[in-house]
Every structure is written in C-alpha cells, then in structure tokens.
Design brief:
Distance between the termini: 40 Å
Strand content: over 45%
CATH architecture: Beta Barrel
Structural class: mainly beta
CATH superfamily: Acetoacetate decarboxylase-like
Largest sheet: 11 strands, mixed
CATH class: Mainly Beta
Radius of gyration: 19 Å
Amino acid sequence: MKGYSYPLSPDGRASLVPPPPWHYSGDFLIVEYRTNPDGVIALLPPELEPADDPGAVAAIFADWQSCSDDFHEIVDPIQCQYREFFLVIGGKYKGQPVSRCAYIWVDKDFAMFRGYIQGFPKKLGSIHITRVFPCGKATPKIAPGGRFGATCTANDRQIARAVVTLRQISKEGPKVNAPPMYNTRHFPAASGLRPDVFELVRAGGYDREFSECWEGDAELRLYDDTIEDLQAIAPKEIIKGYRFSFGYSVDGVTVVAQHDKEMLLR
C-alpha cells in the first residue's frame, strides 16, 4: 500500500493529498478590524506574547487554485479550486511579530486535510466571494468604487459577511497577516486527552508574488449562532479593507516549539 496521505492504495493515486511541494494562486479580500484584546490574547498559546496592537484581527476570504509539482490538478479543476475564510490574529514569538490562524473554514476536503498537515485548524464550510472578469457589466472593476462581497456559512449557520469598497491603491497593504504565521499542529491520541502531536510550527513559503493591492472602506459581521465563540473577537472598530492577488509555494513547516501536552488536561 502506498501514498502520502489517506487513503493508501496499491499505486498511491487514491491519496487525498499528494506530497509537497504545493503551489498556490489566489484572490484575497481582507477586512482588518479591532476587537477586545482579551479575546485575542485568549487564543494565543503560552509560547506567544500579545502583539503591539493586541486587539487587531484580519478577516480573510480567499479564492484559491492550487496544485502539486507536476501540475496535473490544473486540468482537473475540482482537484485544485477551493475557497476559504479565516481569522488571523497577531502575537510575538521571542519578541518578533508573528501572525496566527485562530479559526478557518474551507469548502474542499483536500484543502482541509492539507491544512491539518501545516497546522491550520480547518473546518468545512461554504464560502462565496465576488469574482472579477475582464468584460461585461456583471463584474466590479479593480478601480475606485469597485465593490466586493463575501460570505461564509457552516453547519447551516452564518459565520461571516463582508463588503469592501475600493478607494485607492494601498501603499502599505494589510498588516495583521503580514508577519510569519505560527500555528499549532495537533493530532489527537487514539485514547486519552494527551495528543500524539502538539507543536508550534512556522508556516513555510517561497516564490511569493503579489499583485497591486487596493484598499478602501469595509464592513464585517461575525454571527453569534456558531459553535465557536466569535463574539469574543467580534469587530469593535473597522480599520480598512483590501483586495489583491497572491501566489506562493509551500514545502513543509518548521517546528519551533513543543507545546505542553498536559495543558489540555487542565
């Protein structure tokens, strides 16, 4: 039996996720906002300290296309296209700024499992994002006044809704998700609460490419009828909205610390 991931099979082709490297291209819609800092700090593991702006959060909608190193998924789009919504918070590791994915929803199983490998706590959801086309009236323009919307639902519940209205080209771009991302890789034991894997990892990435980034006014709502306590980090002040395209490649993560497994028993 062969394969990089489940399910294993005689020729290995049945694996849900092929081995890295993985390549990504996507469109991003981001709303940065501030919330109660205590809600953000509660989502940080012991190894991370609060950020300089401890209440800042980025709500990110992404429309991705991804593939492995032989690019075979590109001509079978159901294997490579997916969308996700995630909430990114800030922190510090040994005094240096970092970011962290607190919650994330994705609409494809392969993207969810690949996220677990990298330390992203993904759940299945339904995400929709306004698309851009070069022709016609049924598309916003990447120009002043262009309006973009996005929604996320999961388990028949509304998770988030955002609207961004472009005003100008951004000189700095979004800040909360800009530092390196430090997530937790967690794999539970077959019995008991002590996990088999419980470690802080730095997400990898190379060959990064960015389009021109636009910024503008934004609206964001996080709903209260969810399994997650999103109201603990609900928006108190909207900072700004952003829209841009981004591409990069990934070949693993770097383990920076082992979490204390006993803390899950306390």
